């Protein structure tokens, strides 16, 4: 990944206030990067940047909104991870409430682990991630070699 990173930001409804507070605190560190969100999270983060930059000449980060999570947004995000288009994911999922698309959530988490992208699922991890020296530099996650699986005899 380059210095300019593509960062996925996603939160379930009960965790959106947490994520917005985190963005509010870290918005300057997010400037210059590209942000990809599921639909509703993306609208709220866009609003947050509009608020932060109101009356300033500075422009906010590019924010791309996918579909809302339950409507396929998690799957779209997983697909972007498979094609190496996401460098980092911060996904504050709700540990207290089942979601209609729990299977999609699980699939997204699995793909994030499979592709070894830095992934934070709570605020403390997100804090460590954004304050890491590696956040400011290029970094290449090491990928496991799956060639023996791909070339297996069937
Ligand atoms: O459900 C989500 C992630 O699983 C988030 O979707 P929204 O950002 O559209 O609320």
Automatic annotation (TrEMBL):
Entry superkingdom: Bacteria
All residue ranges annotated as the MGS-like domain in the record: 1-154
Catalytic activity: dihydroxyacetone phosphate = methylglyoxal + phosphate
rRNA-binding in keyword set: no
GO cellular component assignments: cytosol
EC number(s) on file: 4.2.3.3
Active site residues per record: 74
Pfam family, one: MGS
Family indicated by similarity: Belongs to the methylglyoxal synthase family.
Name the record gives this protein: Methylglyoxal synthase
This protein's encoding gene: mgsA
